Automatic annotation (TrEMBL):
<dbReference type="InterPro" id="IPR006059">
    <property type="entry name" value="SBP"/>
</dbReference>
<protein>
    <submittedName>
        <fullName>Sugar-binding protein</fullName>
    </submittedName>
</protein>
<dbReference type="InterPro" id="IPR050490">
    <property type="entry name" value="Bact_solute-bd_prot1"/>
</dbReference>
<dbReference type="Pfam" id="PF01547">
    <property type="entry name" value="SBP_bac_1"/>
</dbReference>
Length: 445
């Protein structure tokens, strides 16, 4: 499932590509996957094939490949890249089929984490850890938290190639001013704001519970703030006992407290983000805050431009008293990645191409397309962004993050993702208790 919002010609792909009922992208390596990979590279000899998700943003990759193919680096590596744009709805199935055939791509677009785990397990990926450490361009070219977030088990398998999408706490500046409120930096402040807003007849938070993945964002941040990023790191790396960490239970209890206190109002389970319901609740002042990915800005600008320009505010998710997590830690979608097929005929050419993603030219193209690059050179370029203030906030948020946790439904094993989302929804709608939630997750293998 994919949903997009167009804004001034810019199409924004949403994180719910991997949301509830749409985990096929994560599953893109489980069925019919073999270790045969590409026999000598799909292009054979000097031409390598790259698969990319064929949305509007693919034009940046088209330009990058044209630039590389005419470069001295391509000549030195004796290789060229041929790009194949695969329609979004077809991407997971086509990639899965291709990776199990002699016609596998040499380089391919992915979401990191769980979306490439099956390929890693089948020995089909180049481990880029040492290549990044030994190459000055790759080592210093990208924000470290983003490189790490796309890896598995402490090893790097991807090079960032699109924009960042952190989850941000958005708030209605006009409504906050009317109620004499300041955005919360601590959990106690957030609870105090909840109480004041409910007394004023305002729902504290918009929530598109019908999609389930917006609910997941709350647990992702709470587990981080309570237990630190290492709690989910254990789970992501295959240790199901990590679900039994006290931070997971405490996060589930905290969520239930919010729901019972009316933080999300009534009927949030029938409100969706994908059909514009939750953004409308927020923009029309019926809810004061919205925890959502950075694409919320473009959504509001497209649907409610006056609200976006005059009243939309943003801040970090607050700290939790006594918790181990740093307020600078971020959750969400770090970016998309290029990974390299272990059976490529020309690894040097593939790596030479990946270096272009760290270039200023590539970063400028992303910014012109409305994205925030994950390169270390991007900050000085953000004045050219459609909204420099918001762009710089996002960039610094990720730049300063000690840890960037990949969205759980993308990070976990494909067999875990869908039942995990089911359990999240059961917790939110009251069909399971926090302890039952933890027990159910511990049973997911």
């Amino acid at each position: 499932m994919e949903s997009t919002t167009s804004n001034g010609g810019r199409t924004f792909s949403r994180r719910w590509v991997l949301g509830a009922g749409a985990t096929t992208l994560v599953a893109a390596g489980t069925a019919g996957l073999t270790a045969c990979g590409s026999s000598g590279g799909s292009g054979g000899g000097g031409t390598l094939t790259a698969f990319v998700y064929g949305d509007d943003a693919a034009k940046i990759q088209v330009a990058a490949i044209d630039r590389f193919n005419s470069s001295a680096a391509a000549k030195k590596a004796k290789g060229r890249i041929k790009l194949e744009k695969v329609p979004g709805s077809e991407y997971p199935a086509k990639l899965r089929t291709a990776m199990g055939s002699p016609n596998a791509p040499d380089v391919f677009f992915n979401w990191g984490g769980g979306s490439i785990k099956a390929y890693r397990d089948a020995g089909q990926l180049v481990d880029l850890t040492d290549a990044i450490k030994s190459d000055p361009v790759l080592k210093s070219g990208f924000l470290p938290s983003v490189i790490t977030a796309g890896g598995i088990g402490g090893h790097d398998y991807g090079i960032p190639m699109r924009g960042m999408q952190p989850v941000i706490l958005f708030y209605n500046k006009s409504l906050f001013a009317e109620q004499k409120l300041q955005p919360p930096t601590t959990w106690d402040q957030l609870l105090d704001i909840n109480t004041k807003l409910r007394k004023a007849g305002i729902t504290p938070f918009a929530l598109g519970g019908a999609d389930i993945w917006p609910e997941l964002m709350w647990l992702e941040y709470l587990v981080d703030r309570i237990g630190g990023p290492q709690v989910f790191d254990r789970i992501k790396n295959g240790d199901a006992s990590g679900w039994g960490d006290p931070a997971v239970l405490e996060a589930a209890r905290t969520v239930r407290q919010l729901i019972d206190d009316g933080a999300f109002g009534k009927g949030f389970n029938s409100v969706a983000y994908t059909n514009g319901g939750a953004p409308a609740v927020f923009a029309k002042g019926k809810a004061a805050m919205h925890l959502m990915g950075s694409w919320e800005y473009s959504t509001q600008l497209g649907k409610f431009p006056d609200f976006a320009r005059k009243s939309l505010g943003w801040t970090a998710f607050p700290t939790v008293g006594g918790g181990a997590g740093d307020i600078r830690n971020v959750v969400g979608n770090p970016t998309n990645y290029w990974s390299v097929n272990a059976r490529t005929s020309n690894k040097d050419a593939a790596l030479a191409f990946l270096r272009d993603c760290a270039s200023e030219t590539y970063a400028k193209a992303l910014i012109a397309n409305g994205d925030i690059p994950t390169t270390t050179n991007a900050e000085k370029l953000l004045d050219a962004s459609p909204n420099p203030e918001f762009a710089k906030f996002q960039y610094k948020m990720v730049q300063q993050a000690p840890a960037f946790t990949l969205s759980w439904d993308q990070a976990v094993d494909p067999d875990v993702s869908t039942p995990m989302l089911t359990e999240v929804n059961k917790l939110f709608v009251g069909k399971s208790t926090p302890s039952q939630f933890v027990s159910a997750l511990q049973g997911l293998k």
